[in-house]
Backbone:
């Protein structure tokens, strides 16, 4: 016996949860997660920074919109998700300016040293600063989505891996663990497993590629000042930022992987510690914890948001790469709008028509009427 919903979301990371909380109360929704806990994979392993100057133009627009939406909800929450924390790029002139964009302004070497006095002065010659960047309290954000989703009637089922999905009439039938679901719309928010879920659903995969990225929390002899921005190498070879009295560091690696529960490779963090102890006066002593997550990307680096062109009612919410938190609310708003489009005739009618082409985020963005503040 299957439970019937308008929408079944597969994947309980930031993508699936933010869509669930956005759709809550507007249609019947189930969210199905393979792991026993929500946000077990990449969404528990990020650097928790939202950076308007980071990523291609459409990602930057979605980031600005996400910041607006999270800030609106912060006004109602006892605990804030957003805390201002700048983002500073360092490197040589050419590399910094190749990476810089509208939200990032050039600053002098002396200004960069004032913001981050632990940098060894001759380790960089140019710097840019994005003052619109924020630290994100990811656990509070994720829990808020879960709470809002459940308050709006969303059924959240954990420990249930979707193992089968097939077309049934105008909708879909899914098997997950011991349970069965029927839905007009299946949302593929399966992160690194998004292509795998497509294949088991009989849908052509998109060639989404997971890439490893490792981070660690370290003890330092010389702490960063409270107002220190996140500091990243413009050539993408490392970043670090304050984390309470400790420091979060990452080698910014971009190494292809299969979908898996990724773990750090021996040596990756040790090599970075040795380098940071040369180009800064942080004096890194111990590695408290290290982790690796998978950033899953489409070939063009733009998130994939929209109905599949061939498979009616199969909705992609994948390929968020290194931008999954900073685009989360904007993408959820966009995705919910696409799923609910044709509200008058109902979800089933709208999707059964098969009228919605697979839309890349950029195309879908162009069709919206957001007022994007710059
Ligand atoms: C080191 C690191 C630093 C990062 N820093 C930032 C940052 O500062 N800012 C930012 O915006 N982004 C950052 N990111 C990227 C961000 O974390 C990701 O874009 C985001 O978490 C992806 O979320 P997701 O929900 O798509 O994937 P996930 O969190 O991986 O969720 C997908 C879920 O789908 C489930 N699933 C898969 N297959 C099935 C199935 N068949 N049935 C049921 N469930 C299934 C999985 O178990 C998983 O829980 C970082 C990533 C890493 C690794």
Residues:
């Amino acid at each position: 016996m299957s439970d019937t919903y308008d929408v079944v979301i597969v994947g309980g990371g930031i993508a699936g949860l933010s869509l669930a909380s956005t759709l809550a109360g507007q249609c019947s929704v189930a969210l199905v997660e393979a792991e026993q806990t929500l946000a077990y994979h990449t969404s528990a392993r990020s650097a928790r920074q939202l950076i308007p100057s980071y990523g291609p133009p459409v990602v930057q627009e979605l980031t600005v919109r996400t910041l607006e939406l999270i800030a609106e909800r912060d006004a109602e929450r006892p605990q804030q998700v957003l805390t201002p924390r700048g983002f500073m790029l360092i490197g040589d002139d050419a590399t910094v300016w190749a990476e810089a964009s509208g939200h990032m302004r050039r600053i002098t070497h002396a200004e960069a040293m004032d913001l981050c006095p632990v940098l060894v002065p001759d380790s960089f010659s140019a710097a840019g600063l994005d003052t619109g960047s924020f630290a994100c309290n990811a656990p509070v954000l994720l829990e808020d989505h879960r709470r809002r989703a459940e308050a709006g009637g969303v059924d959240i089922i954990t420990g249930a891996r979707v193992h089968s999905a097939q077309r049934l009439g105008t909708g879909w039938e899914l098997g997950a663990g011991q349970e069965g679901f029927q839905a007009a719309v299946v949302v593929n928010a399966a992160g690194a497993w998004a292509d795998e879920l497509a294949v088991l659903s009989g849908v052509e995969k998109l060639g989404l590629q997971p890439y490893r990225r490792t981070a660690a929390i370290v003890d330092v002899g010389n702490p960063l000042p409270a107002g220190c921005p996140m500091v990243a190498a413009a050539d993408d070879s490392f970043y670090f930022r304050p984390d309470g009295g400790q420091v979060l560091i990452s080698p910014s690696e971009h190494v292809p992987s299969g979908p898996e529960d990724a773990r750090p490779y021996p040596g990756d963090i040790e090599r970075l510690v040795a380098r940071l102890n040369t180009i800064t006066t942080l004096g890194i002593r111990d590695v408290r914890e290290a982790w690796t997550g998978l950033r899953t990307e489409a070939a063009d680096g733009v998130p994939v948001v929209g109905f599949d062109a061939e498979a009616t009612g199969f909705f992609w919410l994948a390929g968020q790469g290194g931008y999954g938190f900073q685009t989360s609310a904007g993408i959820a708003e966009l995705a919910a709008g696409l799923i609910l489009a044709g509200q008058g005739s109902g979800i089933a009618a709208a999707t059964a028509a098969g009228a919605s082409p697979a839309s890349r985020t950029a195309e879908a963005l162009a069709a919206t009427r957001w007022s994007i503040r710059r």
User: Anything to note?
Assistant: The chain has a mean pLDDT of 91. The radius of gyration is 21 Å. The chain is about 25% helix and 30% strand.
